[in-house]
């Protein structure tokens, strides 16, 4: 079982959604195709994608007029399962938060506001108690929580690009040079989105 966070799930159901690289700040090339390939692999392996209830609520906030359609599609799919922040997740989160507070840093070094920290911890707690293998997320806070709690979090950028989208070496080099030529030069220059 693999958990999808809000950004990853948005890439599936919200037209025009993008995800930026944590390394470069630019949109991740072929992000949607990478996620679709992962979904195909999950379906072929007869595995399940876990959607934590807090993630579902965040996606619905972005598309309130399509909430009914989204929920129907999730319920009718054998590959998606919504998991609640239940008693087991609450206990997991409560114990970890108590340890962090006892250590003198309830945020465990995160700079986000307390509400976001609690929300992200719920997502990781749900993943842990349902015995998921990893979370697919490009949220720095979820990645930091996963690292601190020893739970694997993988970026969309870490997902393989489908082989049919990988250009031959000559074209790959030309594509890299084209991307570099689009970047502004000189002091104070800001990178442009690709």
Describe the structure.
The protein has 194 residues and is of the alpha/beta class. It has one domain: Rossmann fold. Helices cover 49% and strands 8% of the residues. The protein is built from 8 helices and 5 strands, in the order βααβααβααβαβα. The chain has a 5-stranded parallel sheet with strand order 3-2-1-4-5. Helix 5 crosses helix 6 and helix 6 crosses helix 7. The relative contact order is 0.18.
Please name the fourth-level CATH homologous superfamily: 5'-nuclease
Report the order of strands and helices.
Answer: EHHEHHEHHEHEH
Tally of alpha and pi helices: 8
**How far apart lie the N and C ends?**
32 Å
| Helix and strand composition category | alpha/beta
Overall number of structural domains:
1
Biggest sheet, strands in spatial order?
3-2-1-4-5
CATH architecture descriptor name: 3-Layer(aba) Sandwich
Radius of gyration: 19 Å
- CATH fold call: Rossmann fold
Report mean pLDDT, rounded to a whole number.
Answer: 87
Q: Level of helix content?
A: 40-55%
DSSP strand tally:
5
Short characterization:
The chain has helices at residues 6-13, 31-44, 53-62, 67-76, 87-102, 114-129, 140-148, 169-181, and strands at 2-4, 49-52, 80-83, 134-136, 153-154. It has 194 residues and is of the alpha/beta class.
């Amino acid at each position: 079982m693999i958990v999808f966070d809000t950004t990853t799930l948005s890439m599936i159901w919200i037209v025009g959604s993008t995800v930026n690289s944590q390394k470069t700040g630019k949109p991740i090339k072929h992000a949607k195709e990478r996620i679709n390939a992962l979904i195909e692999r999950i379906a072929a392996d007869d595995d399940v994608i876990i959607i934590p209830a807090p993630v579902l609520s965040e996606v619905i906030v972005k598309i309130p007029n399509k909430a009914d359609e989204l929920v129907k599609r999730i319920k009718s799919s054998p590959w998606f399962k919504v998991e609640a922040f239940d008693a087991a997740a609450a206990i997991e989160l409560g114990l970890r938060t108590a340890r962090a507070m006892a250590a003198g840093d309830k945020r465990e070094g995160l700079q986000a506001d307390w509400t976001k920290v609690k929300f992200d911890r719920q997502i990781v707690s749900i993943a842990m108690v349902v015995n998921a293998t990893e979370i697919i997320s490009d949220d720095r806070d979820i990645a930091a929580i996963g690292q601190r709690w020893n739970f694997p979090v993988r970026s969309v950028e870490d997902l393989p690009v489908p082989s049919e989208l990988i250009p031959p070496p000559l074209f790959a080099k030309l594509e890299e040079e084209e991307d570099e030529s689009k970047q502004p030069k000189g002091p104070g220059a800001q990178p442009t989105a690709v």
